[in-house]
Amino acid sequence: MKKPKPPILIIDDNEVDRYILKRLLKEANLELTIFEKNDGQEALEFLENYEANRQEYPGDFPPILIFLDINMPRVNGMQFLEEFAELRKIIEISSCVVMMFSSSERKEEKEIIMAYDFVKGYLVKGDFQAEDLKEKVQAVIGKYLI
Q1: Least enclosed by CB within 10 Å: which of 33, 43, 62, 112?
Q2: pLDDT band with cut points at 50, 70 and 90 for residue 146
Q3: Interatomic CA distance for residues 53 and 61, integer angstroms
Q4: CB-based contacts of 129, cutoff 8 Å, min separation 6
Q5: What is residue 143's DSSP assignment?
Q6: Where on the chain is 4-aspartylphosphate found, per UniProt (predicted)?
């Protein structure tokens, strides 16, 4: 029997960046169930709706990996991380980890972000290829992959 495709969530307000990430994941031969949200607010609402989403997406919710942009409207990546840290204490998403996916290379931001124990990587948009992405994803969620 084939293992289910691990669910991931991409949070980015730029549709082109989401497309590029999905294309790279496909090129890397990573079979995943992909959810997409335009900003941190949409993503938090999606995660907070835990019970309904468990029923609507049996076996595919919650996501095990979140790709998170920093610069977004409404709730940006930094704000998302703060709220996500609190949300992890309330609902059953403690196994969900975050990999940053941003154009920002600011050292100060990286230090703040990487201080969260559930943040497992930081990818700079445009600075990696499909094989690099595959290695990073396998290092973080390899046990869930087919």
Answers
A1: 112
A2: low
A3: 6
A4: 24
A5: G
A6: 69
Q: E strands within the chain?
A: 7-11, 33-37, 65-68, 97-102, 119-124
Tokens of 49: 């709706």
How do residues 28-83 score in pLDDT, each as one tens digit? 999 899 999 999 999 999 999 999 999 999 989 999 999 999 999 999 999 999 99
Contact status, residue 119 vs residue 99, Cβ threshold 8 Å: yes
Q: Identify the structural domains of the chain with CATH numbers, from first to last.
A: 7-144 (3.40.50.2300)
CA atoms within 13 A on the CB side of 20: 14
